[in-house]
Amino acid sequence: MGYPKEGETIQIQSYKHNGLIHRIWNETTILKATELCIIGANDRTMVTESDGRTWMTREPAICYFHAKHWFNVIGMLRDDGVYYYCNISSPFATDEEAIKYIDYDLDVKVFPDMTYNILDEDEYADHKRQMNYPKEIDSILREHLNTLLHWIHQRKGPFAPEFVDMWYERFLHYTK
C-alpha cells in the first residue's frame, strides 16, 4: 500500500459496513503520512453525501487517522476554540485516489473545554442490526470508544493542547 505524499491533495472517502459510500471530502492536503498515521487539513472543501447532496465545510480542519485505532479525529478551528468531531471507524486504508475508512456510526463531539457528547447511539444500534455487525466488531468498537475517551481525558494525540495549531500552521505553508 502506498501512502500519499506530504503536500499532496487527496480525497477522504467514508464507507458504511455494507461497502456503500457514505461521504466524500473532495480535497484534503496531506501534512504527514506514515504507515501508522496520516494527518491532513482542509478548509472550505466540498463534501458529497451518499445521496448526491453537496455542502462546503465552513472552517479549517485538521484530520487525524491512525492505522491501529478504530477512530479518526477532525479538529475544527473556530473563533471560540477548537472543536473535535471523532468518528468511531475502521483504521484507515489508502490508495492513489483517497484515504478510506468504514464509518461505524458512533461519534464523539468534543468542545474547546474538553467536555464531550457521545452521539448517534441509536443509529449505531439500528445499523448494527441491519448490517449484521459481527460481535467481534462490536467489541472492538466499544474498546476503541473507551480508548478515544481516555485520549480526550489525557489530552493525548490530536487532543494535545498545541496539536491542531501546529498542524494548521503547516497547512498554511501549503496554501500560500
From TrEMBL:
Q: Under which main EC class is this enzyme filed?
A: hydrolase
Which Pfam families does the UniProt record give? Answer: DUF402
* Enzyme active site: R23 (proton donor)
Annotated GO molecular function terms are: magnesium ion binding; nucleoside diphosphate phosphatase activity; ribonucleoside triphosphate phosphatase activity
Reaction(s) catalysed (UniProt annotation): a ribonucleoside 5'-diphosphate + H2O = a ribonucleoside 5'-phosphate + phosphate + H(+); a ribonucleoside 5'-triphosphate + H2O = a ribonucleoside 5'-diphosphate + phosphate + H(+)
Binding-site list for Mg(2+) 2: D105, D107, D120, E123
Q: Which cofactor does it need?
A: Mg(2+)
Q: Which UniProt keywords apply?
A: Hydrolase, Magnesium, Metal-binding
Q: Which PANTHER family match?
A: PTHR39159, UPF0374 PROTEIN YGAC
Q: What does this protein do?
A: Has nucleoside phosphatase activity towards nucleoside triphosphates and nucleoside diphosphates.
NCBIfam families in the cross-refs: PRK13662.1
Q: Which family does it belong to?
A: Belongs to the Ntdp family.
- What is the name listed in the Swiss-Prot or TrEMBL entry for this protein? Nucleoside triphosphate/diphosphate phosphatase
Q: Per the UniProt entry, what species is this protein from, by scientific name?
A: Bacillus zhangzhouensis
